[in-house]
Prior knowledge:
Number of domains: 4
CATH topology of the largest domain: Rossmann fold
Largest sheet: 5 strands, parallel
Helix content: 40-55%
CATH architecture of the largest domain: 3-Layer(aba) Sandwich
Bound molecules: zinc ion
Structural class: alpha/beta
Strand order of the largest sheet: 3-2-1-9-10
Amino acid sequence: MHWSERIADKIIAKNPNKEVYVCASGVSPSGSVHIGNFREIAIPYFVAKALKMKGKKVRFIFSWDDFDRLRKVPVNVSQVVDGYEKYVGCPYTMIPNPFDDGAESYGRHFEIEFEKSLAELGIDVEYIYQSKEYLSGRYADKVTYALERRKEIYDILMSFKSQEASDEERENYYPVAVYCSGCNKDSTKVIKYDEKTHNLTYVCKACGKEETVNVLEYFKIKLAWKVDWPMRWKEEGVDFEAGGIDHSTPGGSYDVCSRVVREIFNGEPPTYQAYGWLGFAGVSSMHSSSGINITPAGVLKFYTPEVIRWLFAKYEPEDAYNFYFDDTIIRHYSEYDRGLHAYLSGEADGFTKSLFDLCLIEGKTYEDETSFNTIASLAPIVDFNHDSLVKAIAKLDLPWTKEADLRFEKATYFLKTYQPEKIFNLLTEVNHDYANTLSSEEKAVVKKLYDYLNNTEVIKDKEVQQFIYDAVNNPNLTKKENIAVQQKYFKIFYNLLFGKDSGPRLYMFFAASDKSKYINLLNI
Ligand SMILES: [Zn+2]
């Protein structure tokens, strides 16, 4: 059984007669949303899909926590503008957009960036923008309610802390952040709150403003997040949410918020799934800095949407796992293709079937794909020329499917960015210096290959493979000894063609590329 079905069953068992189940996720647009945060969305998304497949009605909501304060200016912002430190403490939607793209605020810029990727990934979401909700006054009665119950909230929070509670602290505890009407910052301190009139007096440490506002009219007040989170569970009727391991430890945020929702808001916490961290590996030092900033859009440059969905659906949520920027990418495509083939032909096992039910995008049609590995092997041979690549694939008797153009685009980016060493350029003239080092016996084998290629009209990869084995293998040697001989000759061919000891898959190279470009290089 797939993990999403297991979780869906748990949700249904907890609340069997609910009409519409709510799966929730949320992120703050503090900067570019990193691929490392992507499980926050992917896990509830797949659980929502599993619930739907069980015939349930589901809302999948995504809260943009854009009413949170800016904590720190991210590097990609300080690279384009100076002086954004002055906005630390302001909500993301009240900070000017540092980029020249027309988005109305800092927060909105990063929201649009991520929303575009979600759309490309075929992830349908109902967005809730917390700035909009707070500023509309939707939560005003929740804020007054929390202010009334502030001492009980303090007691709950303190019960999870090791330090002693104090009467004075309890007396002066207000579970809100007030954004100053003068400077928009949350560097404020509540000095008085009147439960009857709902008048609240704050003083701003940043600009010195002191003001009395009415909480039912002044909406630039946000609940502290361990109150805000459970308030929204209750408000939206959330049945499921996922969170990082750090929120999930005993006594961590989820436990605290569970008590707050029960004891303060008279609600129930959602079913919760902790997820393991995503890391990065195989990033060369040259790309390590960009690796750290990898966004879903960055990953979409080399994975198709379906392969990303497949990766996130495949691993158990608790498992930590690494993104690799090396041949693992090719292996992932091959594994995906094998699964897809089994799925389409009806031969898939239960887990694979569920996996593909989840990762394929509704409304699209699927077929067996042109192998990414083949495209990635051939593209450099034909100098990344699209038409030559299509012809080369046809020469290998392989199909060029409707997704192949997209795979070609991804393979080109992958090779040029992460594996430039795999791009081999043909020499432009005969490598005489190298040829002069060869023995007459070795030269004779090169001549044999030259004659064969020169005289063969349609070169087939399997036939040229057989020809090379026949030309170099010695029947008096053992298999192991012959492998060494083959390796020696491959090195010779590579040096004559590319001036290097290694190169692309040779049979494929001979079969796929334009003979006129290489044949003279073997005429030594
Ligand atoms: Zn102020």
